[in-house]
Design a protein that fits this description.
2 helices; globular; 9 strands; alpha+beta
């Protein structure tokens, strides 16, 4: 069976269908409309092949929601969803912005996030692997990254955490 996406080591590009995507300053990017045509297992293999060349163990692929032709690595912000290949696992990273930081005497909201998401994720054969506040912790908005491990079997990149 032909792969729906692959990494070409000679040109350091991702190839899927008639599309050739080069590594940009911020990393590889995919448009949300391209995700249904890419099988998750093929994507994981392509990223593993890319990592074999660089051997740092982690790479990120950003999902762009808006007009891809107007996306600029330096000035544009990708969507809140990123795919992360880390130490052999393909994770979905979702960024969540919050307006206010919880008081320090109440503790971190991480356990609350984990307990609220666990039943939903379990129903969809997924697990919350990591929750982390990123960026500037002294000023709002605060950004939380949620790394979700999903079953890839019989799924496209559009729905790694569904079913």
């Amino acid at each position: 069976m032909q792969r729906t996406i692959r990494f070409d080591r000679r040109n350091e590009t991702l190839i899927f269908g008639d599309t050739v995507r080069r590594y940009r300053d911020g990393g590889f990017t995919l448009h949300a409309s391209e995700l249904p045509s890419i099988r998750s297992t093929d994507f994981k293999a392509a990223m593993a092949s890319y990592l074999d060349d660089w051997d740092d163990g982690t790479t990120e692929v950003y999902v762009v929601d808006g007009d891809y032709d107007e996306f600029d690595d330096e000035y544009s912000t990708p969507g809140p969803v990123t795919f992360v290949q880390h130490q052999g696992s393909l994770l979905v990273r979702v960024a969540l912005l919050t307006k206010a930081r919880e008081d320090d005497d109440e503790g971190s909201p991480e356990p609350l996030y984990r307990s609220a998401l666990a039943p939903y994720l379990a129903r969809h054969r997924a697990t919350l692997r990591n929750v982390e506040m990123v960026g500037n912790v002294a000023a709002s908005p605060w950004i939380w990254d949620f790394d979700i491990g999903c079953s890839l079997r019989l799924r496209t990149m559009e729905d790694p955490c569904r079913r």
